[in-house]
Amino acid sequence: MPSDQITAVVPVWNRRDLVAPLLAGLRPQTLPPVEVIVVDNGSTDGAADAAADAGACVLRMGANLGFAAAVNRGIRAARSAWIAVVNNDVELAPDYFQVLLRAAQETGAWYATGKLFAAARDGVLDGAWDVLSRGGTAWRCGHGERDGPAFACGRAIFSAPWTAALFRAALFDRAGLLDESLVSYLEDVEFGIRCVLSHSPGVFVPEAVAWHRGSATLGSWHPETVRLMARNQLLVVARYFAPQWAWHALVAQSLWGLVALRHGAGRAWLRGKWEALRELRNVRGTFRPETAKTLEPWLAENEQFVRAAPHHYWRLYSLLTSGGAK
User: Fold this and answer.
1) Taking the domains of the chain in order of start, what are their residue ranges?
2) In the chain, where does DSSP find H-type helix?
């Protein structure tokens, strides 16, 4: 297959109003995808029909099986050397794919992501790349900040937001697909962990620009969003993190629970933690000390980012864990 061909995979669950504008925005790309696969997670508002009318190949899941399952279905069906995963609430600059591909090829990176701006806030970032704390909570670097010098230079990364990212198809043979047991939320960060373990770095490309509405389907603090995030945080910790980081996990996830409570989602947070505790038997025995040892340098670098983040959550986390296990 040609080395520069791209398949775009777009997971969809309702929001028919977003489908046509997104697909229309893919056509004028300076490097347009050779195929567009829309994976419909059981939409009830005609989103799948709108995608078919716009000329996309539509794979119908029949029910909402989650982001991970939908994206995996699209990846398996893709026939290109490169696969772009694009959310339905994203607007891409016309050269987005071309800039990402060029940077990935020049650096030998396994994947690439660009600079994501918040669609409704001029000059404010939705984020750049993802980092993960020793406490099991993640942060999208730059989220809510104004664009500036810190995000002006490209850099190697190990966790990319799957909002609008480009991957070598061969990466999924190397690191695996998304973990469908996580359903949605943190499945991209968990994939980033496996990229660290398989020595498969990506690249952040600031010249590639997109605009993201963010949580357009459910909303940032919808109870279902909070439940899944709370559940998956604990499952990721149990699977990969060293016992000496237990204090970091207790602090990070307790503080996140207080934030959820402030947003009226405390009950959903508790439900997610309870579900995770019930599922721990399924991940018990999967932890390997050598895994945590491999992750330690990456997590240490990540903690430098979160300790510098201009957010009350991370300031409290840093204060309470500064004397904890290193």
Assistant:
1) 6-212, 223-321
2) 16-26, 47-53, 67-77, 96-107, 171-175, 187-197, 223-240, 246-262, 266-283, 289-307, 312-321
